[in-house]
Design goal:
alpha+beta; 319 residues; disordered C terminus; 7 strands; 11 helices; globular
């Protein structure tokens, strides 16, 4: 994602102002994305942070910022909270389930990737949607990025006691709906690949072996992409039946699979022709390798940031 260019009107020292912003850009992006769940809105909010940061340094009476990291995070969180209110209104009329926009990266082999503390799973991001904006901000800042309660109180302009109460409520809410567990990356990747192969290959027996009895499928089409249901589908037999229909379509349309990362999760990218059709992420049950949840994003607006299916010099798609 391109870095915002510095405006030409910045005074002497503009390089230092830009460098300070760019030095914290990855952190700011991660904070905002975890609060919004939308890549496009995160980039818009990040641009607003840059404009506020650079405008401050244009003022001749501006005092030096003693802690640029804390200052920038505070500005970022406030912009994210303002945008969050707007997004909540928009989602009241959203068609079908709403899922976070996939933040897809190549990431190399899943087994070789370095763990990123700021990478939340799709399942956790879905749970965060049920928090109030302030609860989500506190949870993200404290649980994900390690800010202390006094630091968060300063960022949100709230009393430390109020922040601790928000943190307690948010943590209780999240853990009640999403017990703490992170599957081994190798296992998660293997199950994802087996699931995608079975689901698009029409392997009913293999699919039933992978799905937990109480599995749930969420499909976010936004009313624009393919969706077999505008409501979550519950139960192993029902979810398997959905993907048997998907497999028939895959055979007819010549769909293609690629494996990438979505934040903390391995995912399967489904391509139709040279363009992305769906992102599939599976959530494993805490006590084993069965799939407890399947998240399918087919809304083309949320797939616009994914590049075309890559090919090597011979024209063949890479494995």
């Amino acid at each position: 994602m391109p870095s915002p260019p510095p405006p030409p009107s910045l005074p002497l020292g503009a390089d230092a102002v830009t460098d300070q912003f760019l030095g914290h850009r990855e952190l700011l992006f991660a904070v905002i994305y975890n609060m919004l769940g939308s890549v496009a809105d995160t980039e818009d909010a990040l641009q607003e942070v840059w404009l506020a940061w650079s405008a401050r340094h244009r003022r001749p009476d501006a005092e030096p910022v003693e802690n640029p990291r804390a200052y920038l995070v505070r500005v970022a969180v406030n912009h994210a909270l303002a945008r969050r209110a707007e997004l909540s209104r928009q989602r009241e009329t959203y068609v079908g389930p709403w899922l976070p926009e996939p933040l897809v990266t190549d990431g190399g082999a899943v087994t070789d990737r370095a763990e990123r503390a700021e990478a939340l799973s799709m399942a956790v991001l879905v749970v965060l949607e049920t928090l109030s904006p302030l609860e989500r901000a506190v949870f993200v800042l404290h649980e994900v990025f390690g800010f202390t309660h006094p630091e968060i109180a300063h960022i949100l302009n709230r009393a430390p006691t109020a922040v601790r109460q928000l943190a307690t409520r948010a943590r209780r809410h999240v853990h009640a709906r999403r017990p703490r567990h992170r599957p081994e990356p190798d296992l998660h990747a293997q199950v994802t690949e087996r699931f995608a192969a079975a689901a698009l290959g029409g392997d009913l027996r293999g699919l039933l072996e992978l799905l937990a009895p109480d599995v749930t499928l969420w499909t976010d089409s936004g009313g624009k992409g393919p969706a077999v249901s505008l409501r979550p589908v519950h139960g192993r037999d029902q979810v398997a039946a959905v993907f048997m229909a998907v497999a028939r379509a895959a055979l007819a349309e010549g769909l293609d699979l690629r494996h990438r990362l979505v934040a903390a999760d391995p995912c399967a990218l489904v391509f139709s022709g040279n363009g992305p059709l769906a992102v599939l992420v599976v959530d494993l049950a805490p006590d084993g390798d069965r799939i407890a949840g399947v998240f399918s994003v087919t809304n083309p607006d949320k797939l616009s940031g994914i590049g075309p299916r890559r090919t090597d010099q011979s024209g063949a798609a890479p494995a």
